[in-house]
Amino acid sequence: MVRRPYDIGDRVCFLEANAGTDDNGPPSGGWIVESVDLYTTTVRLGTTREYATFTNGSLSNSRILNLKRSEKPNVYMYLKFTMNVTQEQLDEYRSRIIGFIKDRPREWIKVVGFRCTHVETELQYLKYALIVQHRESWQSFATIQISKGDVFIFALLLQKELSMEYTAPKMPVQLSGDPASSLTKSFVDQNTVSKASQYLFGTPPLNDANNNRKFRNPLDDPPLDDTKVNYLTGVQSTQFSTGTAGVASNWLSESQNTTQSEISRLSFEDEKPSDETKSKFV
Fold first, then answer.
1. What does the alpha-carbon distance between residue 183 and residue 169 come to, in Å, rounded to a whole number?
2. For a FRET experiment, which of 15, 27, 160, 276 has its CA 20 to 30 Å from that of 228?
């Protein structure tokens, strides 16, 4: 006998031998067989209508699910309830769902189950699975999805009506690091250094946009007076706490020494320092 796992027009899925199946039905609506010959099988994807061809040899070790030949499917829907829900509310919810299914005998056969599948104490919710058996096979994938959507909408509205809807709790936010030192560093970097550079040199400090700018000869600058020195080293105590002011003052002192040592090595690119200039550096 020739093995014929599918016929033309069947909706199928190709899986690995031990792969699990999805509760939501065939992924992407499965493949619809369009033609079969001795060497290849031509199929079209159920949802996007993409066209594909498989060699029969590549399918020999696959597990083939024939959704047309399968029995009437069980459709799963997952719902979340608050942990404060009572048994009376759950009983009322179950009876209303069963009544909704019975009112649609052309779509649904029965409610197979309504049970709790997971309890999440940290997020404070109960996860329930509503399992309903449809009259069509997964061959009619679109019809099942439409019917499933109707039940889902009714289930969510019923949750709200019975005050059983779940709202995620507000979770605390944990901050790492030292906020005081981060604030001091940010303040000094963005404000104090920029103002000090403008006050001393008349130009903003170097950044990524102007790191090719040329400085004048530092020997032409007048010496720092007491006001400018106090501006660099003095930080108003009203802006910082005692510990933070100490960190900022030490950082400014180190920055001043580094800046002066870097500036002392600068000169015009087009000028060579004269002997008198060299003697001043010495």
1. 31
2. 276
The CA distance from 25 to 87, in Å, is 31
Whole-number mean pLDDT of the chain? 75
Which pLDDT belongs to residue 90? 93
Query: What is the reported pLDDT for 159?
Result: 92
155 pLDDT more than 60: yes
Cβ atoms 100, 130 nearer than 8 A: no
Pairing of strands 74-82, 108-120: unpaired
pLDDT at 5: 86
Cα–Cα distance for residue pair 99/111, rounded to 1 Å: 10
Cα atoms in the Cβ-side hemisphere of radius 13 Å centred on 95: 7
Task: Tell me the fold of 74-161.
Answer: Alpha-Beta Plaits (3.30.70)
C-alpha–C-alpha distance, residues 185 and 247, integer Å:
9
Calculate helix-pair angle for 226-233, 193-201, nearest 10 degrees: 170
Task: Report H helices in 76-119.
Answer: 87-102
